[in-house]
Amino acid sequence: MTLLTTSKEPLRGIVPPMITPLHADGSLDSASVEKLIEHLIAGGVHGIFILGTTGEFSGLSYQTRRDLITQTCSQVGDRVPVLVGVTDVSIEESIALAEFSANAGAYAVVVAPPFYNNIDQKELTHFYLQLADAISLPMFLYNMPSHTKLVIEVDTVIELSAHERIIGLKDSSAHAVYFQSLCHAFRNQPNFVLMVGPEEMMAETVLMGGFGGVCGGANLFPELYVALYVAAENKDFETMKVCQGAVMEISRNIYQVGQYKSSYMKGLKTSMSFLGLCEAQFASPLYPFSDSEVEELRSRFEVIAADLTQLSL
Amino acid sequence: MTLLTTSKEPLRGIVPPMITPLHADGSLDSASVEKLIEHLIAGGVHGIFILGTTGEFSGLSYQTRRDLITQTCSQVGDRVPVLVGVTDVSIEESIALAEFSANAGAYAVVVAPPFYNNIDQKELTHFYLQLADAISLPMFLYNMPSHTKLVIEVDTVIELSAHERIIGLKDSSAHAVYFQSLCHAFRNQPNFVLMVGPEEMMAETVLMGGFGGVCGGANLFPELYVALYVAAENKDFETMKVCQGAVMEISRNIYQVGQYKSSYMKGLKTSMSFLGLCEAQFASPLYPFSDSEVEELRSRFEVIAADLTQLSL
Amino acid sequence: MTLLTTSKEPLRGIVPPMITPLHADGSLDSASVEKLIEHLIAGGVHGIFILGTTGEFSGLSYQTRRDLITQTCSQVGDRVPVLVGVTDVSIEESIALAEFSANAGAYAVVVAPPFYNNIDQKELTHFYLQLADAISLPMFLYNMPSHTKLVIEVDTVIELSAHERIIGLKDSSAHAVYFQSLCHAFRNQPNFVLMVGPEEMMAETVLMGGFGGVCGGANLFPELYVALYVAAENKDFETMKVCQGAVMEISRNIYQVGQYKSSYMKGLKTSMSFLGLCEAQFASPLYPFSDSEVEELRSRFEVIAADLTQLSL
Amino acid sequence: MTLLTTSKEPLRGIVPPMITPLHADGSLDSASVEKLIEHLIAGGVHGIFILGTTGEFSGLSYQTRRDLITQTCSQVGDRVPVLVGVTDVSIEESIALAEFSANAGAYAVVVAPPFYNNIDQKELTHFYLQLADAISLPMFLYNMPSHTKLVIEVDTVIELSAHERIIGLKDSSAHAVYFQSLCHAFRNQPNFVLMVGPEEMMAETVLMGGFGGVCGGANLFPELYVALYVAAENKDFETMKVCQGAVMEISRNIYQVGQYKSSYMKGLKTSMSFLGLCEAQFASPLYPFSDSEVEELRSRFEVIAADLTQLSL
């Protein structure tokens, strides 16, 4: 990984927030991890991000997290960069996971703000700098206000970007003004990586100067999201329109079964089980769909899968 | 206006949410209204929206609102469509203003959800349908969750769009996933107008199929926003980049003096006073900047105005 | 009313936020207004508050508001103080309603913060002082963050209380720390009236030094709330327990039919229709319960009404 | 501890959420832990709750948490019940800490909802039942919406209370209607313990049937909070008023230095350092007050400490 981490080339493209395959008893499904990684790399992704929100990091034991880090880094090797979410409420546990990731060969860590206490921007800055000083890998900030209750404000990002190990930010706020404000603030620092989480807005941010997307749906159909990213990079509006339409169909149909706050997570992972990529098992407090919900999802999924076949990406 | 309202051509482009020029005593500054309208039309705007949030509708008496409607419709004539905000907590007052607007010659009304009580989507739908049935002008929905405490959900918009008088939506949520979801939902109804409020995201939404923007900064520099819109329409990324940079400079400098929740409103209107377009007077509860804030704003403004001159839009 | 308004005795007790009886077409049901006022006064209430949130002020036209003010003040006469909600987003309309209320013989006005724009405490202070300067009646502040999106902070209340016409505050936040903080801040200003909205917490605040409650349920069963207030004043824990139990049964059963954000309003007004006190008609955007919801409510109501008869208040 | 856990007598009184004494390097300050425990027991507290929000649980490593559990249970012995916060986002880590606590001799565990993902009541119920099934100690629910983003709704509490190991709830919402609704719902289950967090509302809830308070200020002045609790239990309004006044002075002066979201935590722990009970050191992301803030706090603290001496509790 030495070449990657010392490279001047910033990360760009599709970096799926990999779901964590689990058995019904909550233990790691290593066989599915292996299958899923090959599925993603075969799909052309530009990196793999484990232990993010979509990876259900918060519901996993530390042992499971370490097992996943080890397996992923080992299996991926030098093929694409591996990013590891080490978000935690305890800075000591974050540091420990970050150093474990460094030893495993990860490319970088990704860190959302500490998410229990309500804190101010100054405290947040203090936290991130203390963490960056204590670890050896590059770090991405992770803006996720719906989960952490605070925004990493633009001025805070600017201040933090002066730290040599803070190399980018993933924004999952879906707030277009915030993201454009970051793009503008960093217009003269072209190596500071700015990616978005929500796949529905990935293409437009790439058109406006963004670096790509951490798209959950790329777990399912990596080629589609890679094709959308490439089309946006190339300003190929014809292809973009087709791919964006498919992405929106997934968003509307796969992520909205039931009226759960977790419909996205349940719809995504259950659809992946239809492809044999994992079991439809979740870390607590999530639990599987009911049978009728599974059937509703399956019929929606089949329409989308058939349509995607037509696209011949 | 008959031609306009029966036209099949949906509204597109830059429709500034016109600020309301006021005297220090709170009364309408009609001379400035006249000057401002000519400034906007000379700047190439595609419509004028009065009595929106930027127009401080909520702080104005009903008499002032009616005076502004009459003057604006009369002065604008057939040159561009006039949209009138008739948002109110009382449906009867909304209807009365809408009919007054119709008689004055307005093109359409714009209505945010009733914003005092906390209500459900079904109640919201009931409200909008009752209102649409009672008025004679076309209506735009106005999604403004930061002010009204609720989102007009995508399914609600779909249901409401079946009403012949509900012809579009202005989204000021800045939520890119929401807006893309609307664009996708209406991909086969190309006459349903989808515009965004926040100017920072206008260009990207036009690239993705949006109809334009209700951009506050167009009160100040209409040519800039029109140029940005046209560049986005034409996929002229070179020009877009330059204009977007200028728009972001305005966003970062003009709208962020002081730590007020109202910094946008105060920065915009006070900057307009520098151009002689209005006085820096506000409807209560807003009040003018302090002298030092005005000077801080002025020095920022002068840099931006000088830069814009270079652009020769 | 001269005696009342110049009296040194602060308001104490139960001041129901009177519902506004309406016909199906939205017009004022004056016959029910008359009946309801007599019902309340016969029930022993210590004041009547019209045009509050429970009075659906925001959904009424200005003409309806003025009609209600006139009728209520005239019919109540000197029997109890009449408080009038003149909350509005436009200070000019608030002032106009306040002066209309003064002429009609009201005791005081009640004003929640302007509720459309997001504002700061300094702007809020500016608004309240400007309003207090412009009117002739005493004024109660009205803390209602769920509807207005901001809290009138304790320091703001302290600052505002220096104005001679600002004589108290009604707190509908249900936030016990906030209310105790106010009680402590005003421990040496025993004439500054501090009342709570939520009836479920009225008794405990009276035990701790509060002045009483603006209890919605007192529209239905005024004697119950008066008895609870008197028991709390007298530290009669035996009676308090019985009455508090009844109040909580109302809260749990009458206010929670359906899963509406408006279940309180619909349950209260519909129950009042069972007593013949009004029709179950609402200002838009609310609309009546379905038939099955009415029957569900009716069966709950009958249990409660029967239990209350047993209490022989 | 066998007697305690099998006892039918529910917990009542003052159970301080013990702060966690730390050294500047973040390690546990065991000498201060010892001193603090004796300070609390000498002050008459009815239990000790470690690793709550005030105990900065979220900022501590698991090793530090285990060290604190071991030391506290061992030192306290049978003198008062020890409650241990085992809130976590991972159910496996919660279970591990709960079993560790059981082995150390704790009385019960306290668990707030998993606080990263946004979840529904059904998922929350699923989580709590799964946890309760997996552990051997009794469990208190911990309602803390400002930190966990969701309320444990009354109906959820009722459903969960059917589990034999779920024996009570600590409510830190400060929402008086919520707490009264719980008191009413459990009026016929007198062993289900209902306590509040915010000390400003403790007395009134005890008057209304609550079981006591988990009061942060009792770290500093345990006698004061015990005296207030006893006075409320005895309906001794004279003493209650004096003690409540002192508690409110602490709330207003000690917890509100600076404009930090963490002013409570910083003010409390720094004041404790004035008494020699711990160092003014915090778990990241919190950091110490500046010198001038310390001096501001010290002058406020000295007034309060002097006043308390007068009370001779």
From TrEMBL, chains A, B, C, D:
Listed name of the protein: 4-hydroxy-tetrahydrodipicolinate synthase
A GO MF term: N-acetylneuraminate lyase activity
Annotated GO CC locations: cytosol
Highest classification ranks of the organism: Bacteria, Pseudomonadati, Bacteroidota, Cytophagia, Cytophagales
Any single GO BP term: N-acetylneuraminate catabolic process
The organism's place on the tree of life at top rank: Bacteria
Family: Belongs to the DapA family.
Alphabetical list of SUPFAM superfamilies matching this protein: Aldolase
The entry's keywords: Lyase, Schiff base
PROSITE patterns associated with the record: DHDPS_2
InterPro entries: Aldolase_TIM, DapA-like, Schiff_base-form_aldolases_AS
Positions annotated to bind pyruvate: 54, 214
Active site: 142 (proton donor/acceptor), 170 (schiff-base intermediate with substrate)
